[in-house]
Design a protein that fits this description.
By secondary structure, this protein is an alpha+beta fold. It has one domain: 3-Layer(aba) Sandwich (Aminopeptidase), CATH 3.40.630.30. The chain is built from five helices and nine strands, in the order E-E-E-H-H-H-E-E-E-H-E-H-E-E. The protein has a six-stranded antiparallel β-sheet, sandwiched between helices. It has a three-stranded antiparallel β-sheet with strand order 7-9-8. Strand 8 and strand 9 form a beta hairpin. Helix 4 crosses helix 5. It is globular, with a radius of gyration of 16 Å.
Length: 194
């Protein structure tokens, strides 16, 4: 499902879609965040960039680091809590971060609590993150996915990212690389409906 631009509202640090609010993290989100980053089914795809978080205190400390991490960056980088607009519940996390080794390429990423899988939230959030990056001067964004992460691979395609190959350039892992250029955002896709 590809969302049209008018369904996405980008402000200084928040992004809203029809069903989601992507907002800055707060340390009071630690328990909700732990349901994402403390879950083995999510964390297994994040290592070595990030390992499973063991407890609420460690999660709170990490969120505090995230809050301080990119607030002065001239590029549209950061980390967001993904909240379901209807309930106010944190269902996931999104980020736009410079990728190693040189930090030139920006990665959009999303992680959802397993209880929220299968509802299209990851696709909606990934699409919103791309809008945010492009509205702030970026011309392209990337997503990297481990080859066996079939859920992540499918979501990258639904966001509108195009597969461009496999590399070990980022994170010293064999990863599938997807790219989305500003001019291709919201372009009609010639494919079968999902």
């Amino acid at each position: 499902m590809v969302h049209q631009h008018e369904e996405i509202d980008v402000s200084e640090r928040t992004i809203s879609t029809l069903r989601l609010l992507l907002r800055p993290w707060s340390t009071s989100d630690a328990e909700s965040a732990l349901s994402i980053f403390g879950n083995d089914e999510v964390a297994r795809w994040l290592a070595p960039a990030m390992t499973r978080i063991a407890d609420v205190d460690a999660m709170r400390d990490l969120i505090q680091t995230w809050i301080e991490e990119y607030h002065d960056s001239p590029r549209p980088t950061g980390r967001w809590a993904i909240e379901e607009a209807a309930t106010g519940q944190v269902v996931g996390a999104g980020s736009i971060l410079p990728m190693p080794p040189f930090g030139q390429d920006l990665e959009i990423a999303w992680q959802l609590a397993p209880a929220s899988w299968g509802q299209g939230f990851a696709t909606e959030a990934g699409h919103a993150l791309a809008h945010y990056a492009f509205s702030r001067g970026e011309d392209e964004v990337f997503a990297v996915v481990r080859p066996r992460n079939t859920r992540g691979l499918a979501t990258a395609r639904r966001v509108g990212l195009e597969w461009v190959g496999e590399t070990d350039k980022y994170y010293d892992l064999q990863l599938q690389v997807f790219r989305l250029r500003k001019g291709d955002l919201d372009a009609p896709l010639l494919r079968r409906p999902d």
